[in-house]
Amino acid sequence: MNKHLSLLVALQSLDAEVLKLKTKKRDLPLQLSQLDEEFKKYNQFFAENKRKYEETAAQHKELENKLKKGLDSLSKAKDRLGEVKTNKEYHAILKEIENIELKNSGIETEIICLLDEIDDRRKSLQEAEKEKEKYERQYESERQQIEKEIDSLEEKIFACTQQCQKLTESIPKDLIKRYEMIKALNSGTAVVSAWKGVCGGCHMNIPPQLYNELQKSSDLISCPNCSRIIYWQNQEESIT
After folding, report:
1. Cα-Cα-Cα-Cα dihedral of 32, 36, 41, 44, to 10°?
2. Residue 144: predicted pLDDT
3. Domains of the chain with bracketed CATH
């Protein structure tokens, strides 16, 4: 393998690594966005449960105030029984007392039902608060991990890009122009190995004569099918 081909192979390897790193870096903000969205939904769910508990507790307090007023009204009505002067007034107050007691009884029933609901919601909320603390710690940990990975990828991309730049300076400009043109036409791959008569880029068969020349010659040879620059590589030796 001649010097320029060797440099092109190294450049292609770095370009492939940069592409892989950039692809990974591109996907990470999406993961971050999804993580934030899940966290937002979780908080909304928790806030909704808390709101329902507070509404139920407020309703309970309102009913207790109503019952207190009802008991006061009942007490006053009973006190008036001793002040009546006619049978008609007496029966009217009895009817009023009956209505108040009936209303108070209904409020008491509502309060009893709400007490069970409040107790259930309180227990559920307490458990949710404990889970929320764990979830928030996990969320922060995952978010920091993704952010660190983004920073790390940026450093790696910068380092690889710098190495690419140095390699590019060591390769003739006309060869770099050819490399870039082929890379643009073949999804970022301009240089590939060939083994057993097959191009590693398009996976098409290379003419036998050209393949034999590829193994012996130090010239830059292109695949007749995809135009990528090809070089012979004994992949069995590469594996061992």
Report:
1. 180
2. 96
3. 21-169 (1.10.287.1490), 173-239 (no CATH)
